[in-house]
Amino acid sequence: MTRDPARYTKLAELEFERLCSLHGAICNRVTDDQNGWDFIVEFQPGSTQVPADLRPSPKRCFVQVKSSAAHRDACDMKLSNAVRFAQDDQPCFLVFMSYGSDRRAAPAIYMQPFWTAEIGRALRSARRAHVDGDRLNRIKHRFKFRPVDRFDQDVVSRMLDHLSDVGAGYSEQKRTIAKAVGYESGPAASGSVTLAEGVTVRDLVDMVLGLKKSVPVSAISVADHRFGIDVDLGISGPGTMLIEVKPVAKALVVIRPQSGAGEVSWAGDLFSPGMPWLPEEEQRLRVSAGPFEILLGISGEANFTWEMPLDQPLDVTELNRHLAFRTWASEAPVVVELWVNGTRLTTAEMTPDPKAVGQSAYWKPLRSAFNDIMSLAPPERVPNSLLVPLQAVLDARSEILEYQKYVSDLSATITMQLEGPIDPIVEKTKSIISPVHLEFSKHLFVAVIQRQVTSAEIKDGSIILNTLSGRILRSAILKGTAEEHRDFVAAEVRWAKAEAAGSENVLSFEP
Q1: Half-sphere exposure at residue 115, Cβ-oriented, CA atoms within 13 angstroms
Q2: Closest C-alpha to 364, from 257, 495, 462
Q3: Which of 165, 475, 487, 505 has an alpha carbon 20 to 30 Å from 33's alpha carbon atom?
Q4: What is the dihedral of CA 205, 206, 212, 218, to 10 degrees?
Q5: CA atoms within 13 A on the CB side of 442
Q6: CA-to-CA distance for 299 and 283, rounded, in angstroms?
C-alpha cells in the first residue's frame, strides 16, 4: 500500500473537518495556506436562550494540521509559520495525526496550543536564526509530543477547553506573553550614547530626572538582550534622545512654620538617575510635589523652587495650603521635611524671595479670615464648583476681612433704616436674628446669627442696636447669588426664630 504523504495529508484534513462537525464547530478550510494555518475554526456560544444582540461573539482560532504515514510522536513546521502562530494574538493550534500502516484505522491525534512554552520556543529559534543569518522559511521547527498531548477523538473539545481555561482577554494575555517571554533574566537592552558637541553629563542627568525633555546626540548604539542571545540593533545618529521618566518612589513634602504649630503637605514623586557610575557632584535626586521642585545632592545640599500662579483655580484644600505657605514664609524661613516611603529623608530650611511671597501683615489676617468663612460649612457640604484663584482672594480681601468681623466679632453696632413707623417696643429688644452674607467667586457664603442686644434706640427713623455676644445658628456655602437663594435664607431665619420662640423680645429680619 502506497504511503504518499499527500494522501495522508488529505486524510488528516478530512478527519479534522469531521471531528469539528461532530462537536458543532464551523471549520473553514483555507485555500491559500502561506500564512501557516489550514483551517479557521469557530465555536458557537452554547446557550441559545440569550437574545442575539447580547450573545458573545464566537470563539475563533487558527489551526494547522500535520500528518504522518508512520507511527510518530513528532512533526515539523516551518519556523516562519511557528513565529506567525506565536505572534498572532488569536488562538493558534497545531494538530498532528499519526497513521499506521493501515490508513483506514483511526490515527493517534495530538494537539499543542501556542501558549507560553511554544511561543517562547518559536521566538527563541527565530532570534537564533537571525544571529546565524538563516531564513525562517527554510528552518524546520520540531514539535515533540508527550502522551498527555494525545487526545484522539476528543481533540476539538480539548481545544475548546484550552480557550475556556485561559478565559477572558485571551488576545491580551497572549500578546503580553509574546512581548515578555525571553526577558526574564535581566535588562531588556543595553547600549551606548555619544552626546553631541557641547552636551554635558549634567544635561543627560537633567533629562533622566525629568528636568529636560531631550538632549541631542551624535550616535546611539543599542543591543537587545533576549533568551540569553544579544542582538545589535545598529548605530544611528545624529538625533535627539528622549526618555520616558518614571518615579522610583512616592514622596511627601511637609512645610512647617519656623515657630509655632501647624503643617501642610503635598504628595509627590521621587526621581533618581539610576547611574551609580556618575561622579559625586552629579549624583542628584529630584522631588516633585505640588508647587515644589527640590533637587538633593549626595552631600545633603538642597535646592528649592516653587511656583504658585495667582490665576490658577484651586480647590479649598489646596488654596488653604497656599495661604499657609505664604503666611509662614513671609514671617521667617520655613522648615521643609522630605519623606519617602514613610521615612523622613531630610530636613532643611527654605527662605523664599520676600518679593515673591509678600508681607506677613498682608497674608496672616487674610488666611485667618478665609478659614473663618470656610468654617460656615463642613467640607462635605462645600460645593465642588468652588474653585478659587488666589488672585480672586486678593481682589476681595477687604470684603472677606469685613465679613469675618460680622461672623466672628463678639460685639457690633447695628443700624437699620426701616420704612414706615417704628413700633416703640423695638427699644425693648433683647436679641436680634439676622442673615449676613458674602458673594464671592460666584458663590454665596451666608450665616444666620443671633446676637444679644445691650441697648436699642430709635433715632431719626432708624433703629440703632448695640450688641455684645453672637452665635451662628445656621450657615451654608452655596453656588449662586443672594437673590437666587433668597427663599432658602428666609427659611433659615424663620427656623432660627422658631428655635428662639421661648425668648422675650426677639427681633428678626428676613431678606
Answers
A1: 10
A2: 257
A3: 165
A4: -30
A5: 8
A6: 9
What cell was used for 336? 521643609
DSSP string, 406-456: HHH-S-EEEEEE-SS---GGGGG--EEEEEEEEEETTEEEEEEEEEEEEEE
Q: Is pLDDT at 1 greater than 60 in this prediction?
A: no
Give pairs for 483-487: CB < 8 Å, separation 24+. Answer: 484/444, 485/444, 485/446, 486/511
Cβ–Cβ < 8 Å for 20, 95: no
Q: 441: phi > 0 → left, psi -120 to 50 → alpha, else beta; which?
A: left
Buried b (16+ CB within 10 A) or exposed e, 15-29: bbbebbeebebebee
Give residue 317's pLDDT: 92
Task: Express each pLDDT in 457-509 by its tens digit.
Answer: 777 777 787 877 778 889 999 999 999 999 999 999 999 888 876 666 777 77
Give the chain's length.
511
* Mean pLDDT, residues 97-117: 88
CA distances from 243 to 157, 163, 246 (A): 48, 38, 9
DSSP strand E in 128-207: where? Answer: 140-144, 189-195
Burial of 307 (0-12, 13-18, 19+ CB in 10 A): exposed
- Residue 294, SS3 per DSSP: strand
Distance CA 377, CA 447 (A): 10
Residue type at 9 in one-letter notation? T
Please answer whether residues 63 and 95 qualify as being in contact, where contact means their C-beta atoms are separated by less than 8 angstroms: yes
pLDDT in tens, 315-372: 999 999 999 999 999 888 999 999 998 899 889 898 888 777 777 678 889 999 999 9
Phi, psi dihedrals of residue 209, rounded to the nearest 5°? -80, -5
pLDDT tens-digit series, residues 138-189: 999 999 999 999 999 999 999 999 999 998 899 999 999 999 999 987 767 8
Instruction: Kindly list the distances between the CA atom of residue 497 and the CA atoms of 385, 456, 504, in Å, as whole numbers in the listed order.
Output: 31, 19, 11
